[in-house]
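Notebook p. 47: complex prediction with pyridoxal-5'-phosphate.
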Amino acid sequence: MTAQAVQERIYNFSPGPATMPLSVLQQVQDELLCLPGSGCSIMEMSHRDKTFLDILHAAENGIRSLLNVSDDYAVLFLQGGARLQFSMIAANLLRGQSGKAQYLVTGSWGKSAVAEAVKEGPTEVIWDGKADNYNNIPSDADYSVDPSAAYLYYCSNETIQGVQFQTEPTAPQGVPLICDSSSDFLCRPVDIEKYGILYACAQKNAGPAGVTVTVIRKDLLERSQAELPGYLNYKNHADNDSEWNTPPTFAIYVLGKVLNWLRDDIGGLQAMQDVNREKAALLYDLIDQYPEFYIGHAAPGCRSLMNVTYKLPSDELQSAFLTQAAKHNLGSLKGHRSVGGIRASIYNAMPREGVAALADFMKDFVAQNG
Ligand SMILES: *Cc1c(COP(=O)(O)O)cnc(C)c1O
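Predicted complex, structure tokens below:
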């Protein structure tokens, strides 16, 4: 049964929820009926049980050690996905402030974050890539941040368009930098000290849907107003060790296993970045080699390591590409409806062989149809 299930697994390029390390799924399967030594499944255990608290703290420590997170920061495990962070960030850090929130909009997710922030206070988009159909990323010289802004917000990797910041924007002294890292969390080393908040929903690059990790500098917790709905108040979660209410225990448990995999099987974030660069190059090299057949969306300087977006010369070729790819066990390659074309999501857990199989398929496809 298990061997057959493993055999049936395709190379899954889904943008999220997305492919997971096979070894993690196998460990979860082994432990699902009874977590060794605990007499029940992880799903059946109180979130106050010491066994679960150890799992929670191990996940927190996993994030702290992979990203070098100091005690100046809290690591929170939240629900509501990245979209609830769009609201929580503005509710906690903008509501009642004199400065305005400033946003860099490089794609669909940044735009959706702005739509929530405006409900909480003055919000300004200081750079917007719309004119170029979000194929670009600004550099520091392309905008100016108000030194009295409540915060500077950006999305490090726009999952739908496939554009990624190569380095973080610079925020003036005293302006917290806020980052939606949902689709490139843990794909490379990050200098966390530059951030006020860095957050990510887990279901792209770190685990199953249901948990969102928010790393927040502790001094920012003092901005949260007591009148906020309890769940929306970061301080409640920080003061209660992410146990203000029942956290998503199963998702945190699986996330913990992905963190162990990153540390033990991959060797940390620098090693992960090296692998990710190598994988992405297999596809971008083909886009560069056949620019009139595989028409890349992202400008070369801001290509995403995680989501590779391109079009083919016609809708007919695109459909044929998707149909034939599926026959080669290459799945979920259809681009988002707003951009069209093809999107290959090649997150941390996508093995190199999967990307190589897609690259081989692309070579054959262009040879037959180009
Ligand atoms: C998927 C995604 C979101 C939305 O996440 P939800 O958990 O569905 O709310 C937000 N930002 C980015 C960058 C994403 O990739």
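Notes: The chain has a mean pLDDT of 97. The first helix runs from residue 2 to 8.
Next step: compare against the earlier run before touching the bench.
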